[in-house]
Amino acid sequence: MTSVAESPAGAPFGPVATDAVQAQPAKPRAARPESAASKRELRLDLFRGLALWLIFIDHLPPNLLTWLTIRNYGFSDATEIFIFISGYTAAFVYGRAMVEQGFVVAAARILKRVWQIYVAHVFLFTIFLAEISYVATSFESPLYSEEMGILDFLKQPDVTIVQALLLRFRPVNMDVLPLYIVLMFFLPPILWLMLRKADLALTLSVALYAATWHFDLYLSAYPSGVWAFNPFAWQLLFVFGAWCALGGAQRMARILSSNITLALSIAYLLAAFFVTLTWYVPQLHPLMPRLIEQWMYPINKTDLDVLRFAHFLALAAITVRFLHRDWPGLKSPWLRPVILCGQHSLEIFCLGIFLAFAGYFILAEIAGGTLMHFVVSMSGVVLMSAAAWLFSWYKRVAAKAGPRAASNDADLAGGAA
Amino acid sequence: MRAISRVGLGLCLLAMLAPGVALADDAPGSCNVPAYLLTSDASLPKVAEALKASRPLDILVVGSRSSTIMTADATSYPWRMQSALQEKLPAATVNVAVELKVKKTAEEAIAGFAKMLEERKPVLVVWQTGTFDATRSVDPDEFRDAVDEGVALIKTAGADVILMNLQYSPRTETMISSAPYLDNLRVVAQKHEIPLFDRFAIMREWNEKGEFDLFSPSPGIDLAKRVHDCIGRALASLVIEAARINPGELRIQR
């Protein structure tokens, strides 16, 4: 890692920001003469959009499309991509705000964003309550009497709802937003340090991650247990994303373009693929050495297992290497829906969770079966894309109507247009 | 709905040869379970010993009462397992007892283990756990430690153990996160080299093949009984398989 002395004192962000715009993330061929403002980093939008689609599909009951999601081919899944890119874009957008408008204004904007995410979370919780109440009143099964214990929450709505507002009671599939809220809440100080001593910020983040594992840090949840995504551990991805956005990626360009990195990444991905294969093809299971199994399992998602983090890094390294930011495919109409979804991540994320609930309802109440699963999944993806297109259209119209109407939040990966 | 799901199922089978799904020729109601779900690297030495010595096979089922039919009703899985075992091992004496740990996490359940084992002195303990922990989202690490400790207690008491995991419950899939508990049960089984009865995978298999419609909004007691019957029989197969016993040989000995 190079030192932080590259940023001249007095104007710490200026040069770094320009570099980041031109060469993010970790473009091997550095700064090219492009107008920074017109170039949006479409790869970030693309992969965040993809992550949103995968999260939606993973939240439906397993079906044909589930086999397309990356968690079946390795250790990490869409959550890693989502958190990393969120860190990247948040640092990029609010980092610039912090340099231009100062700490207080940027912090205020970040907190406004936190509030939006919180409201979105509460909205989703309401939908969950509706669903669970429906099941409670309409579903009676002697076979599943124990599972129905989950409905006991309805017996004390006062406690449950207050705990949900405190982010301590989080139903299944509603763990990502609370994590995002906490990470964003602590973004102002992280960003403040990151703009001055980027490597120190990253080092502290790694230290906190290590401490999480060593001292078993966690946030407790209601009624028992811990947060499904431990913020003390998952902050590593978020801060790492921020670090990459603020020039780190460029400084890693050398490492990323080396063939050794490539070989290591490919070897690791293949090994991880083989391990996942043994989960689905039990016949392969005897080939797994017992010692490795005992060392490796369980692969801890709550605390972002090192194996998962490494898997994400390997995926990212290969992606950055082979998918250049000026790849013409990024402009193709085929990828447009994914990219649009990535540009409106919060809205589309919430819509995805809602659609997963709704899809579940349809599969349970109206018709099941693989064909129906497929139809539900595809309709969900189409609806998400259509909604994203609508948001973009509205944003364009609003921007035309007057500069004051246009908001610029961290929605737009790679910066507001 | 039936028709749609049949078509869908056919498409599914044509479209992909899902890894690990054995396309056996089973008719509905046959309780067929792919062989890989009922084989185990681990063995049940105490069970084998008891059977070979013609001692009674005392099985203790410790469970959290998955279904409301479990109490002393001959249709719940412990008793279905008993009759299946008795059928397959006519020469042996199979006794089954059930110990209910209703609304108890694994950690709370093991508190009574020492006393229970001393009183019952089982040859084999079938321990069904995880559901209550999952509905209360107990810390998976704590859950693993508790199961680990419980298994150690049973083994120290000189009995074999089979761990049984959660039911596959499509209705509550969006509300209960079962994956960490399934994983941790597998980890403990591996660590102690004991068989895991993968009830979750087996029931999901049945649901996918249309053997049972576990999605049904009004399943009724009849479905529960049929599922328990199949679970009991599958469990009996696992016991025999893991004990490495050839029922034919036992018969000759007598």
List the helices and strands and how they pair.
The complex is a heterodimer of chains A (417) and B (254).
Chain A: H1 14-23, H2 42-59, H3 78-101, H4 103-138, H5 157-165, H6 176-185, H7 187-196, H8 198-215, H9 231-251, H10 253-257, H11 259-280, H12 290-296, H13 306-322, H14 336-343, H15 345-365, H16 370-401
Helix pairs in contact in A: 1-9, 2-3, 2-14, 2-15, 3-4, 3-7, 3-9, 4-6, 4-15, 7-8, 7-9, 8-9, 11-13, 14-16, 15-16
Chain B: H1 2-15, H2 45-52, E1 57-63, H3 77-88, E2 94-100, H4 106-109, H5 113-120, E3 124-128, H6 131-135, H7 140-156, E4 160-164, H8 179-192, E5 196-197, H9 199-209, H10 220-242, H11 247-253
Parallel strand pairs in B: 1-2, 1-3, 3-4, 4-5
How much of the sequence lies in strands of chain B comes to 5-15%
* Total of DSSP H or I helical runs spanning 4+ residues of chain B: 11
CATH architectural label of chain B: 3-Layer(aba) Sandwich
Unreliable runs of chain B: 1-28
The helix-strand sequence of chain A is HHHHHHHHHHHHHHHH
**Major sheet description of chain B:** 5 strands, parallel
What structural class should be given to the helix and strand makeup of chain B? alpha/beta
- Structural category of chain A: mainly alpha
Estimate what percentage of residues of chain A fall within beta strands: under 5%
The count of DSSP E runs of length 2 or more, i.e. the number of strands of chain B, is: 5
Strand order of the largest sheet of chain B: 2-1-3-4-5
- Total beta-strand segments of chain A: 0
Radius of gyration of chain B: 18 Å
Quaternary state, please?
heterodimer
N-C termini distance of chain B: 53 Å
Mean pLDDT of chain B: 82
Keywords (chain A): Membrane, Transmembrane, Transmembrane helix
Protein name (chain A): OpgC domain-containing protein
Pfam families (chain A): OpgC_C
Organism (chain A): Rhodopseudomonas rhenobacensis
